[in-house]
Structures are given as structure tokens and as C-alpha cells.
Amino acid sequence: MTSQIDKAKAFHALHVKGNPVVLYNAWDPGSAAIIAKAGAKAIATGSWPVAAAFGFADGEKIPLDVALDNIRRIVATVDLPVTMDLESGYGVEPAKVAKTVSRALEAGAIGFNFEDQVVGGSGLHDVAFQAERIAAAAEAVKASGIPAFINARTDIFLKAKPDEHSDDLVDAAIERAQAYAKAGAHGFFAPGLGDEALIGRLCKEVELPVNIIALAHVPPKAKLAELGVARISYGPVPYRQMAEWLEAKARAAFE
Predict the structure, then answer these.
(1) Domain residue ranges in the chain
(2) Which residue numbers in the chain have pLDDT < 50?
(3) 149 has which bridge partners?
(4) Helical pair 94-106 and 127-144, crossing angle rounded to 10 deg
(5) pLDDT attached to residue 120
(6) Residue 19 and residue 32: Cα distance in Å, rounded?
(7) Based on the number of CB atoms within 10 Å of its own CB, is 202 exposed (0-12), middle (13-18) or buried (19 or more)?
(8) Number of alpha helices (DSSP H) and beta strands (DSSP E) in the chain
(9) Do residues 11 and 149 make contact, with C-beta atoms less than 8 angstroms apart?
(10) Residue 15: exposed, middle, or buried by beta-carbon count in 10 A (0-12, 13-18, 19+)?
(11) 2, 119, 139, 188: which could form a disulfide with 208 (CB 3.0–4.6 Å)?
């Protein structure tokens, strides 16, 4: 088995602008094993599919202990880097975020998504305060001795409809990316953004590797690579497609 440190280093190396690593999101050990068999270079969980698989709604409704046990089981199942969606850190204050990060690393994760939206609210954390939270996460990573990958997510584009995305929103995203990088983030996740020109601008003006989620309105992999994207994830898409297939098959069986 590859060590956690080596997995973390390998995961960092997968993030190359113009040659994006593809993360086809898993939700449990079984799905992770299938995705690994298909040729994955790393495994990533998504908060929505993990919550749904365990009977919870998204938004930190799944108990952290359950989510962490799921990660332990995934790590034990696949010999690949495993990155976890930690949503907003299961706590507002930096100290709580740091504790959550430490527990995720103890469970075997080598990276995590960390978002800036206010869980249970409608807006985003202030840039400066979110930077403090990321800095606390970075300190926890340093203390662990595991060079984990902090993927700082902004929900700016998810809070607006795709046809409302603009250069002004990209300006705001760039401001956040710069602050998050200074605080210790290793990647910048902009879910919801699908406009080619705006993605290209974000990748050009942000030093961090940019992560885009492959939603229906998002350009294909080849175009995203051309635009400078370094990471493509699928979020809830695989689980939703699986659920539709399973329901259709079940209905057919019951007829």
C-alpha cells in the first residue's frame, strides 16, 4: 500500500494547467472501487452524493462521524489518493475547521474541498474571514505532517444563474482566489462556471490550479484543457445518473 504522504504528493502532481486530472466523484467504497477499476488516478467524494447515499440532505446534514467512517472505508478499499468534500468545515470558527481537517487527515484523506458559502444561510463568508478559516486548515495540514491538498471552493457562480455570470463575478472570484492562495490553499474550485471566455480568464489570472465541475452547460474536457483548467470533477452527476438508471430498472422489474 502506498503511504498517505506519497499519495498526497502524487495528488498535488496531478494538477497541471492544460492537462486536467479528472475526478469522477464517488460516494462509498463500492463506487470508489468501480471508478478505480475504470482507470482513475485519484478518488474524490462529493458532499451531495455521499449525503444522499446515506439518507441525508446536503449541507452538512450527514454527521461528520459517518462521513469520516465512509472515507476510512474508501481509503481501505482503493490504493489511490482520496480527497474528501468537507463542505464548509463543519463549523464556522477557524478552530473548528482545523479540528475537522485534522480528523479528515486521520481518516486517511490526502486533500479536501472547503467552500466559502455559509451553510444554512444564503450568502458567502467575508473574504478576509474565509481566508482565516483556510489559514486554520493549512495550519492543521502542516501539523499533521501530511502534505494535503486544500481545494478552496467559491460558490459565487452557484449563487447566480449561468446567464448572469459576468466579468464582475470573475473579478470577485479572482479576489477570493488570491486571498485563499495567500492563506495556504493549493487549488481554486469554481463550480457552476461554464462560459468559455470566463473560464479562460479565471485560469489565466489565477495562479492556483483551477477546478471546474462538468455540468451540462460546461465545455467538454478538451476545451477545458485548452482553457487552462487543471482539474475536472463531476460532483453529484454520477450519483444522479446512477439513481435514474436504478429507478428505471426497478420500475421495469415491478411492472
Answers:
(1) 4-254
(2) none
(3) 111
(4) 40
(5) 86
(6) 23
(7) buried
(8) 10, 8
(9) yes
(10) buried
(11) 188
> Number of C-alpha atoms within 13 angstroms, CB side, residue 179?
19
What kind and span of H or E run contains 10?
Answer: helix 4-13
- Cα–Cα distances (Å) from 130 to 64, 75, 93, 115, 140, in that order, read 21, 29, 10, 9, 15
104, three cell numbers? 479528515
β-pair partners for 154 = none
Q: How far apart are CA 144 and CA 101, in angstroms?
A: 10
Tell me which DSSP letter residue 219 carries: P
Residue range 4-254 forms a domain whose CATH class is alpha beta
In the DSSP assignment, the letter for residue 92 is S
Res 1: pLDDT: 67
pTM of the predicted protein model: 0.96
Measured in whole angstroms, the distance separating CA 102 from the mean position of its chain's CA atoms is 17
And the C-alpha cell for 59? 449541507
Cell matching residue 188: 481554486
Extract the runs of DSSP E, i.e. beta strands, from the chain: 21-23, 43-44, 82-85, 111-115, 149-153, 187-189, 210-213, 231-233
Q: Residue 188's beta-bridge partner residues?
A: 152, 210
Give pLDDT, residue 122: 83
Determine how β-strand 210-213 pairs with β-strand 149-153.
Answer: unpaired
d(CA 130, CA 117): 9
